Amino acid sequence: MSHRRAALVGAGHTRFGALDEGPRKLLRDAVDRAFESVDRGMPRGQVDEAFLASLGFSGWQLGNASALLAEEAGTHQIPVTRVENACASSGFALRAAVRAIESGQCDRVLVAGLEKMTDAPSRRRRYWLGVSGDTEWERLAGLTFAGVYALMASRYLHDYSAPREALAEVAVKNHENGALNPNAHFQKPVSREKALSAPMVADPLRLMDCCPVSDGAAALLLVGEEHARSYTDSPVFVAGTGAGSDSLALQDRESLVHLAATRRAADEAFRHAGFERKAVSFLEVHDCFTIAELLAIEDLGFAKAGQAGRLTLSGATRRDGSLPVNPDGGLKAKGHPIGATGASQVYEVFLQLRGQAGARQLKSPTKALTHNVGGSGASATVTLFTAG
Amino acid sequence: MVRKLSRGAIIRGSGRRGSLDVENVDEDQLTLAVAAVEALRRGGAGIGRPGTDRIELVGAFPELVHWALPEALGLSPGIVHHHSAGRVGLASAVPAASAPDSQGSSLLIAADLNLSSKSGPHNAADGAAALAFLFEETPGATLRVWRPSAGTTSADPHEAARISLGATEEQLRGLPIHVLQAPGIPMEVLRVKGSHPGSSPLELETLPDSYEGVGFPQSVGPAMELRALCEAAQRGEIAVLATPTPNAPAALFVATSDGETRWRGAWKGRPHSEGPKGSREPGVEPPDLAAVSEGAYVPYARYRENLPGRWRLAADRCGACGHFTFPRRARCRHCAASDRLEAVELPREGLIVEAVTKVHPGAQPTEFDPYVESEGSYSVVLARAGPEVRLTLQFAGPPPEIAIGDRVDTELRRLYAMEGEWRYGLKATLPHAE
User: How far is residue B1's CA from residue B234's CA, in Å, rounded to a whole number?
Assistant: First the structure.
């Protein structure tokens, strides 16, 4: 490809979980760590644009939240835009940053994702957990996202005669990975028995099929490729980005068992990147519910329709398998602070492709894919990375 | 000349009658009335627009029935006439319905809830029922209603019948006259026993078995009597219902048939029970409607705008490409044309389940908290209402044994309260009995 690529030269991440820190502190920590991670350092004054991804969960500073990033990042007066696409907010913020660099408009861009979810009392939390679905039809029928994904799961298990154990296996595998991630919300393995007997949330999804409500922030520093080597010897290049949209409500979509937005995003990203799926070393996918990981593997083109469950049960998606998926524990174990999730996936790619993932380091990965979904599939982004 | 009702299909609605454990917290006078009329429609009654141009309501209805009932039934606005509850209301509603001042048909609906002290914002009525009758006018048809005015009367039903029918003693001789009485409803005058000079003996007949042990609310009891009156008349008998009460004017209905009078009646009811399921106890403060308002915000204006879709499955069919759009979005979702949209109503019965889940306590949106606290889990289905339309529907009542591919019907129910107002919508139900 002949366009100017964006290069990732720094990434920062806070602990995910039910944390004491407030939103400003989380944002500041993630940004500070991103700057600290730049091997040869980057003066804050060099950043010329920033994007903040956040749903505004609980209503705390719902409007104009971009100023929070401007203040906490120490980059006063540069333009900051707040990006909101529900759970895909930072995937879309990253895309905006990449396009700003690819177009030549910007040289150095900061992306931060933030969500502070546990401040709100549980009733208010449940209210906010549903605000990104279809309000007028799905919500009035008594559904939150657990219910919407449960409908998809019921159809998936029915259409493909997939074993229920495949869903549990996603949880078991992701908890195993999360146990090796010091930033993860849950750092304990979970047994198959426990996953299969956890309390029912929305049939067929049990508690162990659902990601937790977490606090956290993540930040990324991207530069034009010609500047990359002045910051680090091992930059990670953005090879391609893709995105897509679909109807808000499941009832209006063509299929109940695949996400058209993900398919479109993946096709666009691979076209952009110019390499094949088989070149990808590992995936970071949006497993807000276990069924979502199976759908993602299929929609991204790494398994035929209905085959992701069998692939998962075969062990192929474990860290030592042929296609590791969510080596950081995924949303399921690492946690899902809504606005921070997309950036957190990229943080994992930054570590893995530079060989810095510690105990969960994959064997010499060279290319990676991140997949970030808004709501039940109303929006999705896919980004492809390649080691420098 | 005494004539018989030549036709009088009494169509029974959904069959909850007689079972004592049914409590539908999401039903009220509006939803019961709609259900009774839908049962009539299922029985083949033609109720539509134009055509049906009067609705006579008997019972204590909330103010919103004036616009909500025609909206839910797909009838013209402004046709609702509200009568008082009980026999008094019936006495004015029956003549209004049976002798409409136009060529259209009219609906008479009696619905009521006996609210118990335990009721919260979701009704926990001790008894709830609705009956709907369709009056299709034909020249010459009558249902006579005789109201003794001060000074006329005989509280004797036989005499009343004779006067009302304009019949002579001779004409009535030998005909059985049934006087109907519902158990538990005091009707002092019916204690008159024995024979009237010149007539056959009066028979005191209690209403059908289904009444046993059922405490119908005040407007519904009389309406059930009205139904029994019609049934008796169908059998070729003169049926008399005398309704004196100490504090209200008495009314006497005499059913006969002239020519082609057509009666149809349907009912939907919920009997008296020991009290609601769940944990509500007497004296427990009902939840505050405003307190359950925290939820994804559907402004009232947008809720009202979408009611044709939400309540009657009004969709658009595009004249340009033939595709359906639901919910309606003022343009075709397939070809984006906005100038050739034709409103159509999708079938509200026989939807096919495409996906199903049971939402367990804790996984519901906050606005459903009071429902879950009272009733526990509920199911939600995604069901197909046509080749291009799927609907997300909460299942009415406790989660059923239902699977992908099964058929479901729909009913109007309360969804939840927001900002002090009830929001209503269709819920899925098991298929209605044929």
Answer: 16
Cβ distance of A201 and B378 shorter than 8 Å: no
pTM value > 0.90 = no
Cβ(B1)–Cβ(B171) under 8 Å?
A: yes
Q: What is the pLDDT of residues A223-255, one digit of tens each?
A: 999 999 999 999 999 999 999 999 999 999 999
Supply the mean pLDDT for chain A: 96
Give the model's pLDDT for residue B149. 36
CATH at residue B192: 3.40.47
Alpha-carbon gap, residue A362 to B346, rounded angstroms: 54
On whether residue B343 sits in a domain, the answer given is no
Domain holding B127, by residue range, is: 29-270
Write out the DSSP string of B341-391: EEEEEPPSS-EEEEEEEEEPTTSS-GGGHHHHHHH--EEEEEEEEETTEEE
Strand order in the sheet with B52-58: B80-83, B52-58, B105-115, B125-136, B262-270
| Separation in Å, CA of B434 to nearest CA in chain A | 26
| β-strands B238-242, B177-181 pairing | parallel
Domain that holds residue A91: 6-121+212-387
- Does the ipTM exceed 0.85? yes
Residue A250 Cα distances to A138, A148, B96, B350, angstroms: 8, 7, 47, 20
Tens digits of residue pLDDT in A122-148: 888 888 888 888 988 998 899 999 999
Q: Which of A123, A144, A199 sits opposite B294 (nearest CB)?
A: A123
Q: What is the CA radius of gyration of chain A?
A: 19
Per-residue pLDDT reduced to its tens digit, A183-201 = 999 999 999 999 999 999 9
Domain-located, residue A59: yes
CA nearest neighbour of B428 among B387, B386, B380: B380
Residue B38: φ, ψ to 5°:
-65, -35
Instruction: Give the domain CATH number at A379.
Output: 3.40.47.10
Predicted pLDDT at B39? 80
Last residue of a domain, one of B270, B290, B323: B270
How many Å separate Cα B10 from the centre of its chain? Answer: 14
Across the interface, do B294 and A201 touch by the CB < 8 Å criterion? no
Residue B350: which of B406, B400, B424 has the closest Cα?
B406
Contacts with A58 (C-beta within 8 Å, 6 or more apart), sequence order:
A116, A117, A119, A120, A124, A125, A128
Look at residue A169 and tell me if it is in a domain.
Answer: no
> Which chain B positions have a beta carbon within 8 Å of A142's beta carbon?
359, 364-365, 368, 371, 378, 380, 394, 415
